[in-house]
Amino acid sequence: xxxxxxxxxxxxxxxxxxxxxxxxxxxxxxxxxxxxxxxxxxxxxxxxxxxxxxxxxxxxxxxxxxxxxxxxxxxxxxxxxxxxxxxxxxxxxxxxxxxxxxxxxxxxxxxxxxxxxxxxxxxxxxxxxxxxxxxxxxxxxxxxxxxxxxxxxxxxxxxxxxxxxxxxxxxxx
Length: 173
Hints:
By secondary structure, the chain is of the alpha+beta class. It has one domain (14-167): 2-Layer Sandwich (Beta Polymerase, domain 2), CATH 3.30.460.10. It is 48% helix and 17% strand. It has 6 helices and 5 strands. A 5-stranded mixed β-sheet has the order 1-2-5-4-3, with helices on both faces. α4 (110-125) packs across α6 and α5 runs antiparallel to α6 (148-170). The longest helix is centred in the last third of the chain and has 23 residues, at 148-170. The protein is globular, with a radius of gyration of 16 Å. The chain starts with 13 loop residues before the first helix and ends with a helix. The mean pLDDT is 96.
């Protein structure tokens, strides 16, 4: 069954969901975990989002992370390796009706870490951009309710521009 793309109003329970899941992830990663962040749309108060909690652990070693794949699987995660982004480990929970996504990067991967945090922080402080993004996602979910590629393609130009603006705002470009 294809993933059903649903965009909902912001849910104030999302930060607590992040905290709960991040504790499980930190326990699995142990001392390899340097930091862990709530990223993505559910990390932006007031932003409409797919109800999927995005979590970004930063680790010392991806190799040590790979050794923990079976522990993640016991917690219900699919461990999918790089999954299209070099230097990342991607995990998801909830099959097609996903509930959590985990994007793990090594601490030396400053570009991807900075990019994710800059976009999150920019949207938290730039209400108009967040509203535009929420409206776009809501409309795309109506047009592509079972087509994740169409949904993502529809956001691509906006997200690229958003990333550039966020990095400039953060002084990273």
